[in-house]
Amino acid sequence: MKQKETLLSTMDIELSKERMEELGEEHVGTSLETPLREDAFEMDDDLKIELIEKHFREIMNIMGLDLSDDSLKGTPHRVAKMYVKEVFSGLNPKNKPAAKLFENKYKYKEMLVEKDITFHSHCEHHFVPIYGKAHVAYISNGDVIGLSKINRIVQYYSKRPQVQERLTMQIGNELKEALGTTDVAVIMDAYHMCVSSRGVQDTNSSTVTSFYSGKFEHDEQARNEFLKYINLEK
Length: 234
Ligand SMILES: [Zn+2]
Hints:
Keywords: GTP-binding, Hydrolase, Metal-binding, Nucleotide-binding, One-carbon metabolism, Zinc. This protein is of the alpha+beta class.
């Protein structure tokens, strides 16, 4: 009896490992919020860099790389600094761009589109790059936001381990909040290095995700106008 129980529980673990693998390969995200622990920012950046450096050196060691080689010596520190200060800096709320609104003196109530915003992110299942273009639109309710601010919001959420669907929604929700309007649309068209350089090794496919809210969700004309601007109309 005891033996059977043990066997069963081992099987359960094996199954969930398989399931986990599958989940990662299919790039299924589990939540809208980036899964962060409560104590995520109790350590300061310097301590994080120091610890990541130590662990990354260990990863390189295990792979058999000679860290006394001049070319590799600085890699653990470079990677650690890049993680904390650059490519994953969007995890920390202190780096969130403040959105300043301007009064729309011309009473411009038409659609405003910013297209071809280049972004670089990382797949949270493989920690390799996702890169592509984001296209954003909103209909002003009387206030407008600086164009560079839209760019910064896109970059902020990109600088996290991500799944593309969540990234698209986080940008959309942030713009709704910052602009005080629900009339927001976001389309992201991206290449996933984990698809092109490994796994199925498909180098040409890109993934398109969209977020439509307010008029963009309910008014087909508004949506088509946006798609026309970014040359994605049907
Ligand atoms: Zn991946």
